[in-house]
Amino acid sequence: MAIEELLDKNKVWAKKVALEQPELFATLAQQQAPKYLWIGCSDSRVPANEICGMLPGELFVHRNVANLVKHVDFNCQSVIQYAVDVLKVEHIIVCGHYGCGGIKVAMENTNAGISDYWLRSVKDIFLRNRDELQNLHNKEACLSRMCEINVAEQVANLAHTKIVQTAWKKNQPLEIHGWIYGINDGVIKDLNVSRKGLEDVDDIYQVEI
User: What does the alpha-carbon distance between residue 95 and residue 41 come to, in Å, rounded to a whole number?
Assistant: First the structure.
């Protein structure tokens, strides 16, 4: 597909939306007021708005390889801070997906170039859970479970941030959820690892604010 075709497709899409929802673009031009922050993988097969059935403006989105929440990643932390402090989102969703290439690479000794630095923390997660993972019956099951474990770890990382804990101490409505998406069937699964307040954070990770 030539790059110009993307611009043509955009014109078709914009015209279609304008006909179906005449007020949408005018409303979006005024402000955004999403209630949800989505932290997902960069994988092109996981389009956040589409798989949730949501329109533009309803979902604030941050994506990176393997949907990681790193405390030293100022890009991710800036998105979280803006979403929580300015947009006042009420839910943060970390959504991984089965068959994640980034997780697969981290579980192997493959030379992935600079991506190896980014995925180092995933290797650490794998090592902490190696006993459980090695007991699974095949590589596919191991990868699927590791994708789930990684989501749970990133939910915990979010709960450990000063940004989130400050909001909780102010009694600001805010919940963190961990989901995983099946590329083979299009269904999102709730991993039931939600965090809803400081009572869900171990004492050692609670920060004085």
Answer: 7
Say what the alpha-carbon torsion angle 66, 76, 60, 30 is, to the nearest 10 degrees.
-150
Cα Rg for the chain, rounded, in angstroms?
Answer: 19
User: Alpha-carbon distance 72 to 77, whole Å?
Assistant: 8
C-beta of residue 61 within 8 angstroms of C-beta of residue 79 = no
Length of the chain: 209
What lies within 8 Å, CB to CB, of 4 at 6+ separation is none
How far apart CA 139 and CA 104 sit, in angstroms, is 10
pLDDT in tens, 92-140: 999 999 999 999 999 998 887 899 999 999 999 999 999 999 888 899 9
Give pTM, 2 decimals: 0.91
Find out whether 51 and 38 touch, Cβ atoms under 8 Å: no
Q: Mind telling me the catalytic residues? A: 41, 43, 45, 97, 100
Domains recognised in the chain with CATH numbers: 33-197 (3.40.1050.10)
Residue-wise pLDDT for 131-181, tens only, equals: 999 888 899 999 999 999 999 999 999 999 999 999 999 999 999 999 999
